[in-house]
Design goal:
10 helices, 269 residues, single chain, 60% helix, alpha+beta
Length: 269
């Protein structure tokens, strides 16, 4: 119903306007030729419903304008009037086609953007379900997306994560929250080094130990648009399995589990 209304609106409007102009001209004498207004209505019709509606409106415009000229007092179908009708025909046709093509291009762009948004939404939902921390940075190193795993590992509040913080702010948050298993005097150097290598696009993976006993394998990947994708993969079992057994009680107190006696790790060895 909505499509039919749009398709009919242009032809109905131009017919009504043209007949009204003809009636007023017959009743009250000379009025200006309505051709410019008719071309505008053709553009509106093509913008609302596409090329077909615009062309139908153009045909009505030319036909009613010919009637207007034929019944206008003192008018005749001489060469100037025929030229005016030819110009109206060309202008109305070109207006209908160009406006219709622009409308179609706009609709295609809207559809593409809607599909892209839907894909991005599904991808974000999928990334929230994995246990790998993921951060997407733009070219200015501001976080465009931070998944649930990263927020959990680094105790990052949703409000702060959704505010698109820069990478350096995420590093400082981890420091202030006491997430890194590093001496206080090494944190500044660690943050500066990580920030520099991230900006340089260094993809060399490193292990980051957290104070809760978890170990993350951090990797930075450069994206085509100049942004970065940061991944934090949990490898706690693989790394802690090779730790000094004398430290078992210490790690057990941090994690609440005996990682040195976990049978499922033998395959990874």
């Amino acid at each position: 119903m909505r499509t039919e209304w749009r398709a009919l609106s242009g032809p109905v409007l131009i017919t009504a306007m043209s007949l009204a102009a003809l009636a007023v001209d017959q009743a009250y004498g000379h009025i200006p030729n309505p051709a410019p207004l008719q071309v505008c209505i053709v553009a509106v019709a093509a913008a609302l419903a596409g090329i077909a509606s615009g062309l139908v409106s153009a045909v009505i415009a030319v036909a009613t304008n010919a009637i207007f000229v034929r019944h206008h007092p003192g008018a005749a179908f001489d060469v100037p009037e025929l030229l005016r009708l030819a110009l109206l025909t060309g202008a109305a046709t070109i207006t209908a086609v160009v406006t219709g093509l622009l409308r179609q291009k706009m609709l295609d762009a809207i559809t593409w953007e809607r599909d892209r948004h839907a894909t991005a939404t599904r991808l974000a939902a999928a990334l929230d379900e994995i246990d790998i921390g993921v951060v997407l940075l733009d070219a200015d190193t501001r976080a465009e997306f931070i998944n649930r795993a990263f927020r959990k590992y680094f105790a990052l509040p949703d409000a702060k994560a959704d505010s698109k913080p820069p990478f350096i702010a995420l590093m400082y948050h981890g420091r202030d929250a006491g997430c890194y298993e590093l001496p206080e005097d090494e944190l500044a150097h660690f943050i500066a080094e990580r920030t520099e290598k991230m900006r340089a696009g260094d993809s060399t993976p490193i292990n980051i130990k957290l104070t809760d006993g978890q170990v993350m394998r951090f990797r930075c990947m450069v994206l085509p648009d100049g942004g970065r994708m940061l991944s934090y993969t949990p490898i706690t079992d693989l790394v802690r399995r090779n730790d000094d057994p004398a430290m078992a009680e210490y790690y057990r107190s941090l994690r609440g589990a005996d990682v040195f006696a976990t049978p499922r790790l033998h395959a990874a060895e």
